[in-house]
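A.,

Following up on our hallway conversation. Structure tokens first:
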């Protein structure tokens, strides 16, 4: 995940993801290094099931297109902020340039995601943070 915007600095992606719902907090990555991200999605009321399906389709599509690491863990979690649902997805892009040059199929899914999330508690509806895997010693 690049530090430039939600899934990259490409103008089309910036338009889709930096709408009021998205932010990114990450350290710079090397373009050819794998990039692990934690994506938090705060579901709009009534859209929880649809968002869960879109999240699953996003990963399936990224995997089919060879954009994510097959050898890295992938996890989607569901939680609640009081009575409101949020999801956390952890995945590893093949390299930091993968989301920057995302194909139209992925960009279309990102647009769907943005339509299904909302800002909550001073946080954006969709938030991505670059993470580092820590292996046990």
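Then the amino acids I'd put at each of the 137 positions:
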């Amino acid at each position: 995940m690049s530090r430039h915007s939600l899934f990259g600095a490409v103008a089309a992606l910036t338009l889709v993801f930096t709408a009021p719902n998205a932010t990114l907090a990450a350290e710079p990555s090397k373009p050819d290094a794998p990039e692990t991200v934690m994506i938090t999605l705060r579901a709009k009321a009534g859209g929880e099931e649809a968002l869960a399906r879109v999240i699953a389709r996003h990963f399936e599509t990224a995997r089919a297109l060879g954009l994510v690491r097959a050898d890295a863990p992938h996890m989607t979690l569901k939680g609640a902020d009081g009575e409101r649902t949020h999801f956390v997805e952890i995945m590893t892009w093949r390299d930091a340039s993968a989301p920057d040059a995302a194909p139209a199929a992925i960009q279309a899914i990102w647009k769907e995601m943005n339509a299904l999330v909302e800002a909550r508690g001073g946080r954006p509806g969709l938030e991505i943070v670059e993470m580092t895997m820590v292996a046990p010693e």
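Strands lie at 22-25, 35-42, 75-81, 84-93, 126-131. Curious whether your intuition agrees with the design.

B.
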